[in-house]
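ok so for the tutorial part 2 we go from a plain amino acid sequence to predicted structure tokens. step 1 is just haveing the sequence, like this:
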Amino acid sequence: MKPLVTVIIPTFNRAGYVIDTLKSIAQQTYKHFECLIIDDGSTDKTKEVVLSFCEKDSRFKYLTRPVDLPKGANSCRNFGVNNSKGIFIAFCDDDDFWVPEKLEIQLAVFYEKPDVFVVTGDIEYVDKNGVKINRIKSHYPHNQGCVFEKFLIKNRTSMVTPLLKKEVFEKVGIFNTHFVIAEDWEFWRRVSYYYKFYSINKVLALVRLHGENISKSRSGKPFENYKLYRKLTKSLLKWGKNRFEPTDYKLIYKMEWKTYRKLMGNHYPGILKKGAFLLKVFLGSITDGFHLIYLIMRFAR
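step 2 — the prediction. this is what the tokens look like for a chain of 301 residues:
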């Protein structure tokens, strides 16, 4: 019997795009899946569009996020995981879509490599109309094998490409609903601590660029990047409190300092600007300020 795959799609006010997403799932060459579409409280015609599609294919199910759960994509993903029946889990955003062979290609890796728990690949960007713009994003080979250190520096996969074994969630926990930006990076850091990744160096999904992308809400300003990385590190350390060894802490702090050193070198040249940056850190959090001084004293040699 072929293993069941659960595909989880959080959606919010995407009546104009979600149909392309659903079609790409339905057109998968691997047919044994269920697709859970979790509505985060849409106020447009998303519900009508999705329900109309579900009526034509029983593998697709429309669900709404319970009101007692936090709002947001991560909350919807968690609700989907908790209601899934598959032994493999995949995610797709409601404005993106997959290549037809995606699941079949990824499952073949799991059959051949039982020690792998996450199979990911490349993405290609399209415009708002779904037309390719000749821009491919690949993290290969940085997301291949034991990649915890690689994920400390940068997010090495997207949300729409990985296929993973459901048992991963039992070990590392579900998605952190306190994250809106970099919510997938926070999760993949935890996964990569325990599990081996396998990366397919070919496009598995297409990501749509348009004016409503949530990633565009990130300012990209240097100090905002610092705060995001610090938040990610705090979250990881909290999760790893009873898991990490002393060598793990050393690695995490070393990569954290490497990130801040690069940020300061690129955006805060000179002693005065670096001092102003440090002062701004202290004004935001005295604890974070002393932590930065600790990193400087320990690693700035």
